[in-house]
Automatic annotation (TrEMBL):
Gene3D superfamilies: 3.10.450.40. Pfam families: PepSY (PF03413). It comes from Stappia indica. It comes from the Bacteria. This is Uncharacterized membrane protein YkoI. Residues 35-100 form the PepSY domain. Keywords: Signal. InterPro entries: PepSY. Residues 1-32 form the signal peptide.
Length: 101
């Protein structure tokens, strides 16, 4: 019984954290123009962006959401990353793999 309550509290907390992060990401994503899946695939095939798998190790946690977007004249991956029980945003240059923030 106690374990079930702990799991429910943890699940609620995780849902609240995720909702908060998504709310915070909305303005950042509004400034970026994100590509459709087919556009992202074409960008990778054309060498404009590295495949997500090649930069996933730089994300600093488990990627729970990823989008390839044009932001400030360059392609970036905007990632939601689960790190230490918290969801954090990472922006990674899609061409170089450099973590921007």
């Amino acid at each position: 019984m106690v374990r079930q309550l702990h799991i429910r509290k943890t699940s609620r907390r995780a849902a609240l954290v995720l909702a908060t992060v998504l709310a915070l990401l909305a303005p950042a994503m509004a400034q970026a123009q994100c590509l459709s899946q087919s556009q992202a695939r074409q960008a990778v095939q054309a060498g404009e962006a590295r495949p997500l798998g090649s930069i996933a190790g730089r994300a600093g946690g488990e990627i729970v959401r990823a989008e390839l977007c044009r932001q400030g004249g360059q392609l970036v991956y905007i990632l939601s990353v689960l790190d230490g029980g918290r969801v954090k945003e990472r922006v990674i240059d899609a061409r170089s793999g450099q973590v921007l923030h």
